[in-house]
Amino acid sequence: MATDCLTQENVPNLFGSMVFNDDTMRTRLPKDTYRILKKSISQGTHLELDVANVVANAMKDWAVEKGATHFTHWFQPMTNITAEKHDSFISPSGNGKIIMEFSGKELVRGEPDASSFPSGGLRATFEARGYTVWDVTSYAFIKDGTLCIPTAFCSYGGEALDKKTPLLRSMEALDKQAIRILRLFGNTTAQRVITTVGPEQEYFLIDKEMYLKRPDLIYTGRTLFGARPPKGQELEDHYFGTLKPKVSAFMKDLDEELWKLGVYAKTKHNEVAPAQHELAPIFTTTNIATDHNQITMEIMKSVADRHGLACLLHEKPFAGINGSGKHNNWSISTDTGINLLEPGETPNENAQFLLFLVAVIKAVDKYQDLLRISAASAGNDHRLGANEAPPAIISMFLGEELTAILDAIESGTEYRGKEKCQVEIGVTTLPRFPKDTTDRNRTSPFAFTGNKFEFRMLGSAFSIAGPNIVLNTVVAEILREFADSLEKASDFKKDVAKLVKDTFHNHKRIVFNGNNYSDDWVTEAGKRGLSNLKNTVDALPAYISKNSIELFTQHNVLTEQEIHSRYEILREGYCKIINIEALTMVDMVKGEVVPACLEYQSELANLLIQKKTCGSYDNSLESHLLDKISKLSADLLKKLDVLEKAILESKEEHESLIAHASFYRDKVFTAISDLRLVVDELETLVARKYWPFPTYAELLYSVI
Ligand code: ADP
Ligand code: MG
Questions:
Q1: Domain boundary at 113, 128, 162, which?
Q2: Looking at per-residue confidence, does 231 or 533 come out higher?
Q3: Is the pLDDT of residue 422 over 50?
Q4: Which residue CA neighbors atom 17 of ligand 1 most closely?
Q5: Is the pTM of this model over 0.90?
Q6: Does some domain include residue 480?
Q7: pLDDT higher than threshold 80 for residue 155
Q8: Rounded CA separation 519/363 (Å)
Q9: Ligand 1 pocket, 233 CB below 6 A?
Q10: Which atom of ligand 1 is nearest to the CA of 282?
Q11: Domain-embedded: residue 109
């Protein structure tokens, strides 16, 4: 439970108190062990079992002191959530007694049954074994009395069955290529290049009692129907508004829980939609940021529960109200702390900055379809292109100034900017980019914001691993091309200048600084030849394209088999989600909506009879209502029938797996949407006391 009062003194002590972090390691481990472990963390060297034994024992002592009784290998299977299987530390010591024990072997490796996790065909059920392997680069932590060891998860044959393994591989790929570029620019001090991420997380908070009355929220995470409330977000009075007491208490408790777990929870505020909020942490290494974002989503749910609330992480919990996304702020940095996407102080640094910048431009243009698929899900399909989130078209926002500089470089003219600062590749100006000049465009899917890029297409329920795997790998590939060519350069400066110029010239179609929500942009993007993959099914084929396979295999991020398995998991997951939505809808309509409509109709019909028997009263209201509800009920029956038929047909043999997914999109999902329209209209007609579910107004304004 929350500490009574958080102060300047206790917050620093609280922070990371449940994490076996560097400080704890240093104080708890023998010097030699600490040194070897640190080397393993920074250089990826192998850890011998005797060292692991010492670390495990120290970890266990620390965890037991903090009240832990169990440990678990904590991993990220191909769902968007984490997995854990708890084992206690107890070990029989004779005489019916026990001692608390934890061995190096248990720390380093686990063998959970892999057969019940999605594997996309990688692991046959008879080959159930899977391994979890300790990720030394992410600290162990205690959650709910259990010592959690962050791990990677792979099959018996060594194929990755999780999101962490390829993420680590993609970071390695980018490291390798970026270091080559840095060496060419004369940097001999950086040993590693890492990517950094700060993910902004949106979510909804609603009353738990109301949540429990909505099977659609419970089973699918979103409301499958609900008439528009009298007040939605049109007054724009929620964004950055004062926090309601219950929300504020939740946020305080959440901060505290996250701080204990070493998560840099920093910014919290109300979002655009009623009942919608956001949390942003301070950025950190991508791998840690990914672990922390998973922890954040989980803790949000558990803290909400404690406060009598339900936290909704679905991308579109309410139709007609903004959904939730996740902004993936991403940059590249050296281990010496230099942000490579920050314009530098010297001409040399600025040339380097421009080279990294055009590498990202080329990567985003060349691999736009892969970035698109990394942000695709049934849930996110509701948002992208719906004028509340970026369209399904990938483009980049650079801001006017930076675009003008690149234009000048391309045309060989001089850029006459406001602030002079030299760069040795033809232009004489390169300004610093104060954040406010570059961060104005909120409609762009991929925006440069002064010293980082903000990939804004992600859905709120996503693991950020997927999009970052793609981002890291596509940039690694372009840096490889650049390094291959520049390592052969006869005149380095001249060749860098030419590379920046040519790359921008060839890929500037991806740059768009205008309003991404406008129809004109859709037309314009079409003219520029940019992809517009409107939904998950359209985006899927890019995943297994020749381009994709070449890219991921070349950088050892995913094998061809792993790509196919991930594609299949995504495709199948999409079908399953729509299937669950369809079944939930049928169940709610038949079990609750239909009886409610009948009951109200019966009341109206009885009234009509009574009035008739009593004399000739005016019965226009009840007869009109009864007529309207009867007609709508007939329509309801028809639409329900269509949906049930579609569900049955979805079970039949389809031409191909992708055709099966298309069927879910075109037939099942469409039938869900059509049925919804009728139910929503009925909701406005049937007396409130008969309506079986909390309304949108109740759900959205329930937390005070
Ligand atoms: P916004 O205007 O989008 O709210 P903020 O300045 O609040 O932007 O930053 C959003 C996120 O970007 C924060 O999580 C922040 O830590 C992160 N961020 C800042 N610098 C970097 C960086 N170099 N790499 C990755 N993320 C960063
Ligand atoms: Mg942002």
A1: 162
A2: 533
A3: no
A4: 198
A5: yes
A6: yes
A7: yes
A8: 26
A9: no
A10: 16
A11: yes
